[in-house]
Task: structure prediction
Amino acid sequence: MASLTEIRAALKTTFKENIPNLNVYAEVADVTQVPAIVVMPARVNSSGLVCEFNGAFGRGLDTWHLELYVLVARTEAVLAQQALDQYVTGTGPKSVRRILYENPDLGLADGTDAHTEGVSAYDGAFESAGIPHVGAVVRVTVRTSST
Result:
């Protein structure tokens, strides 16, 4: 069983090991150095929950819904979008989806399984410490044993 804190840390480690020049924040930081991923529990999903505790008999499975805020520098608009596209596309060396597909256990040896659901936002309205960024939100589901 992995706690939310352990899942966040495992996501950070997984992305840092696969994209060395990417800054990954397991929690919201006061200042974010881009390119970056910030791991956050999701806004309420269609079930109305951020985490579902009753995924199996005897409360045997927790399902966390997370959002990865993927941020790049907002320099020239086309270049920023090209940089962001490398992270949110399905393939390639910087693809968030590919990395989770190849590392669904996040390096945890407890049956944890993570996968991307899709991109729920993509625009130039993101900012950190008053600095504008171009970004996207990648939805991730993580299932982990609760026993």
